């Protein structure tokens, strides 16, 4: 079908390939770099002309290229403008990084979910899910509406509620990303 021919490979396959490449690059750079374990203590400036080949930012050992960092900045800026707190922004960054590596053009198996949050058209009808600002706005609108109805959610509750598409990711894998995502959310929020 036309839909199937325009779909990208599954997000899982894309994530695995990206992770393998990232790990190989990390292993080779660790031998010559002594700073991989240094924690970033201030936001990294991203110029509008910067491309993915730019030296990546490092947050608690996680490398973000300029596109990923720009998408993270957009998520935090939208969340901040909508009144989300840093914990909400950390959940957003955790899901977006864990499921898609902050790739705004990602798609899930069968193209059910799209964008960096793997948002479904059923939950996000009419939203351009591959536009980082539109996707983040719709994502925070849904989370904040749930929190307004039920009170603040724990990290685990928010991840469970906001995960749009079932993935192979476990709760423990999301939890592993929570620390650096909180650090990044704080840096970008306060920066």
Describe the structure.
The structure is a single chain. With 191 residues, the protein is mainly alpha-helical. Helix content is 55%, strand content 5%. The protein contains 7 helices and 4 strands, in the order ααββααββααα. A two-stranded antiparallel ribbon has the order 1-2. The protein has a two-stranded antiparallel sheet with strand order 3-4. α3 crosses α5. It starts with a helix and ends with a helix. The relative contact order is 0.16. The N terminus is likely disordered.
SSE blueprint and pairings:
Layout (H helix, E strand, L loop, with lengths): L1 H5 L4 H22 L24 E3 L2 E3 L1 H16 L4 H15 L12 E2 L4 E2 L11 H19 L4 H8 L8 H20 L1
Helix pairs in contact: 3-4, 3-5, 3-7, 4-6, 4-7, 6-7
Q: What attributes does this structure have?
A:
mainly alpha; 7 helices
- Strand percentage: 5-15%
**Unreliable spans:** 1-55
Head-to-tail CA distance between termini: 46 Å
Give the number of DSSP strands.
4
| SSE ordering | HHEEHHEEHHH
Q: Main β-sheet: number of strands, strand sense, barrel status?
A: 2 strands, antiparallel
- Shape estimate: globular
**Helix count from the secondary structure assignment:** 7
Biggest β-sheet: strands ordered side by side in the sheet: 1-2
SSE-based structural type? mainly alpha
CA gyration radius, whole angstroms: 16 Å
Into which percent range does the helicity of residues fall? 40-55%
Mean pLDDT: 75
């Amino acid at each position: 079908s036309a839909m199937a021919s325009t779909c990208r490979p599954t997000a899982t396959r894309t994530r695995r390939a990206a992770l393998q490449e990232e790990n190989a690059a990390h292993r080779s750079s660790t031998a010559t770099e002594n700073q991989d374990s240094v924690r970033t203590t201030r936001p990294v400036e991203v110029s509008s002309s910067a491309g993915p080949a730019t030296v990546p930012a490092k947050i608690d050992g996680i490398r973000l290229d300029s596109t990923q960092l720009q998408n993270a900045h957009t998520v935090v800026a939208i969340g901040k403008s909508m009144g989300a707190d840093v914990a909400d922004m950390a959940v957003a960054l955790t899901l977006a990084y864990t499921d898609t590596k902050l790739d705004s053009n990602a798609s899930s198996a069968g193209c059910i979910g799209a964008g960096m949050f793997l948002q479904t058209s059923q939950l996000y009808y009419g939203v351009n899910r591959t536009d980082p600002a539109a996707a983040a706005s719709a994502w925070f609108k849904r989370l904040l509406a749930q929190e307004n109805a039920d009170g603040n959610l724990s990290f685990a509750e928010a991840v469970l509620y906001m995960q749009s598409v079932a993935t192979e990711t476990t709760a423990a894998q999301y939890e592993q990303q929570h620390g650096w995502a909180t650090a990044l959310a704080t840096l970008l929020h306060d920066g």
